[in-house]
Design a protein that fits this description.
alpha/beta; 43% helix; globular
């Protein structure tokens, strides 16, 4: 009954979030094994700095690629588990995409192809260059970047996890609803990115009244970082995501070269940022009937690595184990 009662309370107002004792402390203090900034794009309009961290020293190499308008620290719960609790088994790479966080924010035409090249140059710099070495995990725009990266280095991909993402953005909800959704994307980010039931539930970590209040605190903390989060960087990234396009033929090539048994697609049924039919299209065109794993999470939204943290971790771990058994 307590959970039900808590779920009915109104969300904290902005000033209440700002005054909450846990405000300013939503990011875990995870000490990386390696961190720095690396110059990429020297012959592609750069150089520009990409800020990165490596957590863990294990032999399973996880490359986490973040989505639109979000810092690398948003992977903190996955990094805490794989890079610290299981750090002897896993090495986790997280980084800020160009335009966000501690990375440079050039005023330029961004594309998912160019951002994939940034990622490739970073993995080369780290020496992560062996065959079938990289377990690539991309969420939203990060999943679009992951598609491009896999096409560039298919032989280096151990597995490819495409989460809450699309081969291309299509209108699946009708013209006016689609237009309203795009206009409202930043007005009510919580409602766009998360399922209402999860937002209203008591905070998973007990710091705030609800999960939604914690999300609000995280977003306000990010917006207060006026150097890390800029309108310019956000718009440049949004253009890259909006123009991402992979044809059925390109997806077939990707799956042929990477191997369908190495690919999984995850999507929530209540995703209001990139709707669930996008996941269906992506899985089908990659060859969902020929070995690609498709996982549909009922009643969940866009940010599965927060809403379904345990399931997310288990899915990634199971894929790593599956690939290890392939030999």
């Amino acid at each position: 009954m307590r959970a039900l009662a808590d779920s009915r309370r109104p969300p904290l107002k902005a000033h209440e979030v700002l005054q909450h004792p846990k405000f300013g402390h939503t990011t875990l203090d995870l000490v990386p094994d390696k961190k720095g900034k690396f110059h990429v794009a020297r012959d592609r309009g750069g150089p520009l700095n990409i800020a990165y961290e490596v957590h863990g020293t294990g032999s399973h190499y996880l490359v986490f690629i973040m989505g639109l308008g979000t810092f690398k620290t948003h992977w903190q719960r996955q990094v805490q588990y794989f890079g610290h609790e299981q750090g002897s088994q896993y090495s986790c790479l997280i980084f800020d995409n160009r335009g966000m966080g501690e990375s440079d924010k050039p005023l330029a035409r961004y594309s998912t192809t160019e951002m994939a090249k940034d990622t490739l140059e970073l993995t080369d710099f780290l020496g992560w260059t062996s065959l079938r070495q990289l377990h690539i995990i991309g969420v939203s725009m990060g999943g679009m970047i992951a598609q491009e990266l896999a096409l560039m280095i298919p032989d280096r991909v151990a597995s490819l996890s495409l989460v809450s993402t699309a081969a291309r953005l299509v209108n699946t909800v009708g013209y006016w609803t689609n237009l309203r959704n795009r206009i409202n994307m930043l007005i009510d980010l919580k409602a766009r990115a998360f399922s209402q039931s999860w937002l209203e539930a008591p905070d998973d970590y007990g710091d705030f009244p609800t999960n939604g209040d914690r999300v609000a605190a995280m977003e306000l903390e990010k917006r207060q970082d006026v150097e890390g989060f800029t309108r310019k960087g956000f718009i440049c990234q949004a253009i890259a995501a909006g123009w991402h396009h992979k044809s059925p033929e390109q997806l077939k090539e990707l799956a042929d070269r990477v191997g369908r048994q190495r690919i999984q697609v995850l999507h929530g049924t209540l995703d209001n940022m990139i709707t669930a039919p996008h996941g269906d299209i992506l899985a089908r065109e990659l060859g969902g009937d020929e070995g690609v794993t498709k996982i549909i999470v009922e009643g969940r939204g866009h940010v599965l690595h927060m809403e379904e943290e345990k399931l997310y971790r288990e899915v990634l771990q199971k894929m790593v184990e599956k690939i290890e058994n392939l030999g």
